[in-house]
Design a protein that fits this description.
single chain, 442 residues, alpha+beta, Ubiquitin-like (UB roll), Creatine Kinase, Chain A, domain 2, eleven-stranded mixed sheet, 12 helices, 36% helix
Length: 442
């Protein structure tokens, strides 16, 4: 079977005049990494893998050089539409191995794959559909929005319609189906939603999506940013994670006999997310800037609550389409579009499965606006708050047994070291705010 797959990829490369293959992988911080090989090396790469310096996968906390093997996944062979149409360039996403053939613990794909295997042992398949938001600006050094449009606007204000159109067409040419695209709430903010699929395929697609958005923007002389909160007084960019578990072809979150048709399994899953949300916020919101988005008044969730309809809650249950039980899902709303999607999906799944395994009880929904409650009222109801800064998120994550088990010792320790470096750098930096506020008067 491997030989047949290799021969199919080699034949496809010949037929499409592919001369270069970019081997992609993702580092611990969710940055896309790549090195190129010629098509003549492709057969060897697929059979044996290609060696590279593995310290590049460690983010800021790099260690001494160490050999790793990048082995391309045959299912991810795609020609890059924005590269030259003669002597073309394709990409393949790789799994990372140690020289002895052992899967590398620090590979984000390996982290997600372990959680998918855990779900499979319980009889489940995990499906996700992220809603990734981003901004267009005039340039990387000029954060001026391109328009003053608003939510779902279809007016001349939305000058980025053609950019979204080109992005959608490029994604679909690469075999990544798109469900929706539209203008978001903030000026020059946009959203393109990918069609629901299995978590590994979606994590690969999300990494590709972010690159495609930036490539299309760059070709058109503008800059696209997934920074969680680039503008002071506007909403930030999130990545709402719609998710469900299936047993075979049946949605395990659907129960026609229960209120809102939400199954007991779904209730336990949501209870697990609520219990561990503050612990894994460092993963879903991993940057200093992430916590500028998680502020009251900007539509991002701050309190650990759930509801059937209310969009102020951390988790909501979107309305199910009539006669479509497969569309029953839960939506986790805190994650931002700049996180590592492999880790984000892995920690969501892990927390939800822990809720199922422990049969955790789901608290009552919070259908009222939780932001309108006083602090004492929230305290009386036992409503927890998500970490308010990267430092608080680090402290919660550092003592989480589930996060260490989910990510593995290597990723857990390295990710924590990376985040502590970032937090210490931020704390030592004297900002423009401080200079403007204090320098003239102190």
């Amino acid at each position: 079977m491997v030989a047949e797959t290799t021969e199919y990829i080699l034949a496809s490369a010949r037929e499409n005049d592919v001369k270069f293959i970019r081997l992609w992988f993702t580092d611990i911080l969710g940055s896309l990494k790549s090195f190129a090989i010629t098509v003549g090396e492709l057969e060897k790469a697929m059979e044996e893998g290609m060696s590279f310096d593995g310290s590049s996968i460690e983010g800021f906390a790099r260690v001494d050089e160490s050999d790793m093997i990048a082995k391309p996944d045959a299912s991810t062979f795609v020609i890059l539409p924005w590269r030259p149409q003669q002597q073309r360039v394709a990409r393949m996403i790789c799994d990372i191995f140690l020289p002895d053939g052992t899967p590398f613990e620090g590979d984000p794909r390996n982290v997600l794959r372990r959680q998918l295997a855990r779900a499979a042992k319980l009889g489940y398949s995990y499906y996700v559909g992220p809603e990734l938001e981003f901004f267009y600006f005039k340039g990387p050094d000029d954060p001026t929005p391109l328009d003053a449009g608003g939510y779902f606007d279809l007016t001349p204000l939305d000058v980025a319609s053609d950019l979204r159109r080109e992005t959608v067409l490029t994604l679909e040419e690469m075999g990544i189906p798109v469900a929706y695209s539209h203008h978001e709430v903030a000026p020059s903010q946009h959203e393109i939603d990918l069609r629901y699929t299995d978590a590994m395929t979606m994590a690969d697609a999300a990494m590709t999506y972010r690159l495609v958005v930036k490539e299309v923007a760059m070709r058109n002389g503008v800059y696209a940013s997934f920074m969680p909160k680039p503008l002071d007084a506007e909403n930030g960019s999130g990545m709402h994670v719609n998710q469900s578990l299936f047993k075979g072809d049946e949605n395990a979150f659907y129960d026609p006999a229960s209120p809102e048709h939400l199954s007991a399994t779904a209730g336990h899953y949501v209870a697990g997310l609520l219990r561990h949300a503050a612990d894994f916020t460092l993963v879903t919101n991993q940057w200093v800037n992430s916590y500028k988005r998680l502020q009251p008044g900007y539509e991002a969730p701050v309190y650990v609550t759930w509801a059937y309809r209310n969009r102020s809650d951390l988790i909501r249950i979107p309305a199910r389409k009539p006669n479509r039980p497969e569309s029953t899902r839960i939506e986790y709303r805190a994650a931002d579009a700049a996180c590592n999607p492999y880790f984000a999906f892995a920690v969501n799944l892990s927390a939800g499965l822990e809720g199922i395994e422990q049969q955790r009880e789901l608290p009552p929904p919070s259908e009222e606006n939780v932001y309108s409650l006083s602090e004492s009222e929230r305290r009386e109801r036992g409503i927890e708050t998500l970490p308010g800064s990267l430092g608080e998120a680090i402290d919660r994550f550092a003592v989480s047994k589930l996060m260490r088990e989910t990510l593995g010792d290597h990723v857990f320790d390295s990710f924590l070291e990376n985040k502590r470096i970032e937090w210490n750098d931020y704390r030592a930096h004297v900002s423009d705010f401080e200079m403007k506020r204090y320098f003239p008067v102190l």
